[in-house]
Every structure is written in C-alpha cells, then in structure tokens.
Amino acid sequence: MTNNYRYIGKDTPRKDARDIVTGRAEYLDDVRLPHMLIGKVLRSPLPHAEIRSIDVSKAEALPGVHAVLTYKDVPDATWGIPNHMRLLDKKVRFVGDAVALVAADTTEIANHAVERIRVEYEPLQACYDVDEATQPGQPPLYDQYPDNVIPQITKLLQNVIKGDVDKGFAEADEIIEGTGFYECFPNPLPPEPPGVIAYWKNPDKLVAYVATQSLGLNKYLAQPFFRMADTQFIATQCGGSYGTKNANLTPIGYAAELARATRRPVKIYYTKEEHLAAYSLRLSCRINARVGIKNDGTVTAVTGEWIVNTGSGSEAGPHEIAVGCGELQLALRCPNWDLRSKLVVTNRAPTGIVRGYGGQELESSILPIMGMAMEKANVDPLDFFKKNFVRVGDEYFWRNGIKYIYRGIDFSPAIDNGAARFGWEEKWKGWGKPMSVHGNKRRGVGVGIHCNADVGEDHSEAWIKLTPDGRALILVAVSEAGQGQRSSLCKMAAEVLNLPLEHVNMSFPDTDGNPFEFALVGSRGTYTVGKAVIEAAEDARRRLLELASPVMNLKPDELETEDGYIFEITNPDNRIPWRKATGIVRTVLGQGRFSEDFTLSNFLVTFVEVEVDTTTGMVKLVNVVNSAGCGQVIAPACLEGQLHGALGAAGLDTAIFEGGMLDPSIGRMMNSNMIDYKWRTFNDLPEFSTLTQDTPMPSHRFHAVGVGEIATSPGPSAVLMAVYNAIGVRIMDYPFTPDKVLKALSKIR
Amino acid sequence: MKSFNHTNATSLAEVKTALADGKTNLIAGGTDLIGTLKDNILRTYPSTLINIKTVPGLDFIKEEGGVLKIGAATRLADIAENPTVKQKYTALAQAAFRVGTPHVREMGTIGGNIAQLHRCWYFRKPENRFDCIRKGGNQCFAMMGDNRYHSIFGAVNRCIAVNISDTAPALIALNARVVTDRRKIETENFFDVRTPGNTILDMDEIIREIEIPVPPAGAKSAFLKFAIRKSIDFPIVNCAVMVGGEKPRICLNAVAPKPYRATKAEAAIAGKTINEETAAAAGEAAVADARPLEAARFKVQIAKTLVKRALLATV
Question: Within a domain: residue B35?
Fold first, then answer.
C-alpha cells in the first residue's frame, strides 16, 4: 500500500545497525567498572532437599575471595507471582537451585571458591509431573502450598466461565473429549546469556547494568525486592530476550547482594549451562478438555481443566494463565465456557516469561482437541478459524477479569492472503489425509492462529526535548533487545516533527534520566510507547509553534515546521530556523502518556507444510507462511525479521525438536548445552514467507499495533495438525521427535 | 577453563617424550579436546598440551603403491573436498563432509576424528558431574537414566555410551589401516572401551597416517548419517558401506560402544544384486542382534533404514 508518509512504512536503517555489525554496540560483557568483582553461584546437585549445614570457611579463606553468602546472609525477601521465591533459601527445589554466592577477583578464583563450599543435604522426595506433585503425601516444595498448587489470584482472569455449558453441549452436533500435552520445557535461548553488573551508590541506591528487554519492568519489580531502596537500571544492548530478560530477578539479586556485601560492583554472567538449566523455561501445560461443535463449525461449549506446571518457581504463572485465558477467547468465539486452571509447582527448573506468554501454551495444547472436533464435524480448519476469531463488537474477558468489547479491524484478509500465498486450497486434502505421498515421504499441511489484546497493555510515558539546533531527543525508558523499536520510535517522532531521521534520537536507556515506561512486552511498544511518543512530539511541536508565533507575527495554526525550520504555510519562503523561535538558551519539552487499552488485538495465522519420513520418523519443515494483522506497518524489514522469529525462541520448533530433556531418576536436565539442545540452524531453514496487510488499525495517528511477540505462537499446533495429516496418526505430546513418530507408526519393535 | 601450557612440537620423537610424563595431552585440531577441557569433564586435567600441527609431514593426501595415504593431521575439510577421495573413497569424503560444521571441519583432523572421546551426556556433563565407569568410577548413570541415544548392541566393559565418529565407519568399510609410530592396525581393531579413551593406543603412541587400499575396480562406497540437524549434530546413527569389491563391507556407528561391523548384513547381501528387496533384507540382518534399552529402541529402525539406504546409494 502506498502512503504519503516520510518514514512510516518505509525501510530506514536501524539506528544501532552499524554498531551491531561492527562490534561497537556495548553488551553487558563489554562493561568494565572500576574494582568490579565476578560473582558465581554454587548450585544444588539435588532436586529437592533441606540444607542441613553449609561450611564456607575454605572458600572464604581463598585469596581473592571477597564474599561468600548463604541463605543466612541475605534479606528474607521474596519475588515472583505470587511472591514466593527467595534468592537463597534453606531449601533447594531443583537441580541447579542456588545454594551459595561467591564474589572474587576473577572467574577462576570464584569457580574455585564455589568448589570449596561444603554442603550437607537432607534429601526430600522430588516430583516433576503435575500428577505426581499433587498426589497425597508428596512433600510440598513450599510450606504455604501444602498440595503443591499455587492458589488462584482472584484479581486476575484464572478461569473462563461464562454462558451455560450444559445448554451449549445440548446444542452441539458433535462432542469431543481429549487431552493435549505441551510439556516440552523449552528455553527460548537468546544468544546472549543473562547478565547483570550491580553496585550500591549509597546504602539506599542500587545501580544495575542489565542486559534487559525491559528496563522499566526491572525497576518496577525489583524495587520491592530490595525493600524499596532507590534503584537505577541501565540497559546495555541486549543480545536477544524473547521474553526471558524481562522480570527474572535472580541474577539481579545475586549481583546486588554480593555488591552490598563487598561494597564493590559485582558482575553475574550466566554460563550457557546455567542459562539452559537454571533460568526461565517456558510453562508446561496439560489440558483435559471437552468441546461441543456444530457441523457448520460453530463452537457451542468448551469445558476443561488446564494444568500448568511452573517448575520450582513461578515468575509470572498466574499472569500468563490470565493472558492465555484472554487470548483463547479471541481465537475461539464461543458463548459457553467452563475452563479452569491449576498452577502446580514441581522440582523442575523455574519457568518464567517467554514470548507467547500463556496463550501459546494454552492454544498448543487445546487446539489439537479442537482439531479432533473439527474432524468429527468435517470442518476445514481454515473455515473454522475464519468463522471463530474475534470480530468487532465481540465481548471477551481480558487478563484483569474485566470485560472488553473488540473495536479493531477484521483479520479475514490476513487469512485469505496467507492461504493464497501458501496454496492451502490445493494442499488441503482433508483431515488425516496427506497432501502427497512419495514412497516413505508423506507431506501434510496445518494451520494455526493467534490473537493478543496485550498490544495495548499497561502504561507509558514519553518526553521529547527539542533543541534550538533543530534536533529532537526522545526521553523514554526503552531498551533494545532486537526488535528495532528504538529506531521505530524515532521514525514516529520524526514523522510528526518532520525532521531528518538522523536528527531524532533516543535518550540513553536508563530509569533515572527518563520518565516511567512499563516494558517492551506483549507487542505493546508500537501502540503504547508509540502513542506516548507521538503525543509528546505533537505537544512539543505545538509549544514550538507557539514560541515562533510572536517572532513571525503569525498564529500558530498558520505555521508549519520542516527540517528544523518554521515557515508560513501559505508562504513557505517566509521561514526561520528553530533557534530564532526559541533562542539558543531554551529547550522545548513535549510530554505524552498512554493509558492501557485492551480493546484492540493483533493477529497471526501460520501455515506449515511438513514432510515426514515414515521409515526414520524424521519430521522436516518444508514451508512456512506467516500472515499478520497489525495495521499500518511502521518498519517493514524489522517486522519481517520479527515474523521470522516463528522459528527458534521456543516457538514452532517446540513441535519438532526443541525441549528440555530431564532424567527423572535424578531430576537433572541432560541437554543443557548447544549440541544436545536442538535449535534450528541456518542450513535447516525452510521456505518462509511473511505477509502483512497494512489495513489501518484504530490505534494512534499511524494506525499500527505490534505483532512480533506472537510470531512463535500458532506454529506448534499447526505442525501438530500437519504431522497428523501426513501420517494419519495424531500425536498429542510435543515435540514430534523420531522416536515418537516411529512409535505412532508402530515401527518400533 | 583451567590454565595449561601449550607447546609446539617439531618432531614426533619430541611428542612421544612429552607424552611420557602422563600429564601432557596431544592436540591436533582440538575440536574435541578443547570442549572436554572447557567443560572440565574428566577427573584429571593436563598440565601441557603439545601441538602436533607444527610437526612436518603429517598433513597430506596421496595415492602411492596401491594405497591412499592420509596424514593424521589432515583436516576433514581437505578430505571432504579432495577429488580422488570423492571419486574412489566416496564414503570417506561423504563422512568427512558430515562432521560438525564448516569451522569444525576446517580445524578437526582425521586422526582426531577417529580418536575422539565418546558422546554420553552423563560422561560429558561439565565439572565431572558424573564420575562414571569410564572415568574410574563404578556406575553407569545412563543405564538407569535417559539412554535414548545410547547403545542398541549392549554394553562393553559396562559402558553403553556410543562411539560417534563419522569417519570411523567409512574407514572400516573401506578396509583402512591406522598407522602409528610403532605399528599398523586394521581400523576395525583400532577401537576399544577404556578408562579413559576409545582406542587401543598406548599412552605415548601417536597416529601418523591412515592407509586405505585402492578399492577394486567396480567397487563403490557410500556413507549416510541420521541426525536431527544437518550441521553441528553428532549422529544418532550413521552407516558406511562398500560393495562391488571382493566382499561387501558394512559398518554402523553410534549404535554401540565401538563402531559396529554389520557382518550379518554383509552375509545377507553378499553375491546379490542390490535392490529394494535385498537391501531391506540386509538392513534387517544388520539389526538382528540388537538388544536396545527401551528408550533407544527407535534407533534400531533407523539403523536398518540407513543400511538399506546406504546400499541403495551405491547403485
């Protein structure tokens, strides 16, 4: 679609691109503070145990060691949703749980000191599965959760209950029951591991350099954890996050407590093994559901229990459940619901925020059951999704339990255009039927959708400072984790102020020098931060023209600005530079604010074609089409990159080979390295197309909402459908590795 | 990683002397060794690495006297790209090409590829987390744990970890010999299951070259590897075959603690025209003696498929 914008919808170089590719971008490992120490963590070899005694004397005695901390030495503060996780505790709850912290002059000394700490444990029975965990007699991980179930948080949407399910089932032509398993515990695995450098400027002020996706969220969550000390978070260039570098306070806490004890800056930088086995994994889900459907594809009732395994700690479990419950209603219009969630703790590594955030997990486990229902009712899945995604005027409960009415756009063109690009009509042969068979190679196709109203979540503030030299600085606490949002915000401000893009820049990303901003999460940046920045730019522009008005003897609405000049609209030759309007000893400040809005949604449909080798069980991804609905595109190349994010980042490949492999006899993750943990490499990339529609969205001046987060979300269930259609057997537990496929095909003797 | 000394050798005699102290390790490409040191997987740590890449005369590929000779320090990338190897010793070129990644093939050598340590995620857990039989301990953790990638032909010396060399089965199929500074060994007899180590080499013994007899006219060889990804991954199963010579030779790897010569498959295909049916029968025969643990049963199906497909690849 053509438009008259100067920058919006056009590709412009990312502001940080040259720095990234030339190695000038500053990542956490590039930051060297004077007198900085290295922190290391002693981790538990047992999945569940009480600590009987810890002897740190040999570690403390080592030259170069400056502090050794155990649970006795750190404040008794907890974090997580709900608050329950201590930094160090008298108990360990998973293999890899922290037992003690060391700060030393070098990594070598710190590692050596860790080896010299002696711990006696009283082992407790461990559990890894939700059924095991909730058996009577199973020792609780937390005293406050005696049955290993985290109680529901009433102010969040924890269940979807509406209408009359008995009536709904009575109206159904077909009723299907099933169990779906999305229990693969993947790690989205940003290339840069988690890291923090922290120091105390004074006893009441913590300063932390963090490789983070979300500065503001770090501050917002960490401050209570540090008993309301003043905190300043400073973002380094972040080498990927995919959700996981938003809210995990453990490395921040380690660095901060060691820094407090040593009165020096302390750096914590996870090894790949720690990152994979002891950081944030994706939630694991199992769902037992019953679905009523009419032969025209109308869903009449959904009931079920959604059992979520959060591992040994819940960074955000209840909140992810709340978002998942909301998102499922956007993908699946149904008047009658009784879907209840249960959040269970087990002795696996803790789970946390990962893109897809509850919805990907819920849909990956329930959509295959919907697929069984569609098959029974003989409904084409594409027709089903087209009929059932959210329409203008539809009501849904969002994550806060409040009812909203959708006021966005119709996403049918996204489905139609995606289907045309993919060739769905020719490739779809019916449920359980392959698209083609060549010897032992059987191809199948599948489709999935995802919608998210978190595009308008939470609040943002932005300021814009215009300087007399014709430049604009955007003051907003936004860090860069790869989405390109810092550059896109500059485009929006440059468009409003009609400035050269190189004269619009972002302030340094820290929380002291910028106003409140929540986080770049849930694809919210484009709409929420975007709107705050647009408002700030409009406010600054208005003030600028008001200053120019008396100088030029014209009313502000007779004036326009371009490239740092102000001119008379009807006589453009009558112009002055900004400095003549403002003087050279003044700044012009504009302010903008966004307040949360859950009445819009983004949309993604993913089409996949897979080829299954029936003699080896190998599932090969052949073709992927991602078609997004997100309104006007701001930065086409950045968006395409975001949509390519469907692969990796604990996304589509959680259906093919990604996941954590746990040895249940010892509770240890076995594949916590980059050889055994499977992650798609470049030469295994499939054919991949991305489509966007540019249909204006009623959001802000540029009619856009974000969509990057959900690039991963429809993939897994689409692959499940495709594998089923290829081989005629439905495998319900992800991922579909050769052993499972061969077993499904009865090829294992 | 802990600190160690690194010295460049100028002669094999120097290397031999250095190795005698028991605290020195030989390094060629280092693609396996450096990983074991970074992860600190063994009980002991070398005080010195002695580099043999600086020893002249260990990096060559040449045919002479009816034999192809490959220097021990010849890089896998050079073997994979060598026109003679590709044409007459096809399985070896294909195997070398499927090792690791371009970086690994540019560094890794043929000597190191056959002498590398086995892959077992218990054995390889950092900081010697599992002090197993192969390190002098008394337990096999894989036996009771997650052994989906382990042996389907039982244990050797109570270990069920597999040899995962890609080039080893190709060399065995091609009838190669390993020439050391003191003897010539049929590749098939080169492997062992020791503490530590996967070869019969003495502590101070050094591989000098690989010798492969020129295959008889009409002989053809092929190598296939099954892994989740095209690069990086070690094989779940791999297989090399040579047919059209005197007798067919078929070797699987990653299925047992040592490369597994599939003699029953060789007998099944001997004297027969290779087609879908005979190749499938050879595949079945190859796994006739398999006795996998539950989690590794799928590898049997893959092993027999690879034997069949490798045979068909020579037609």
Answer: no
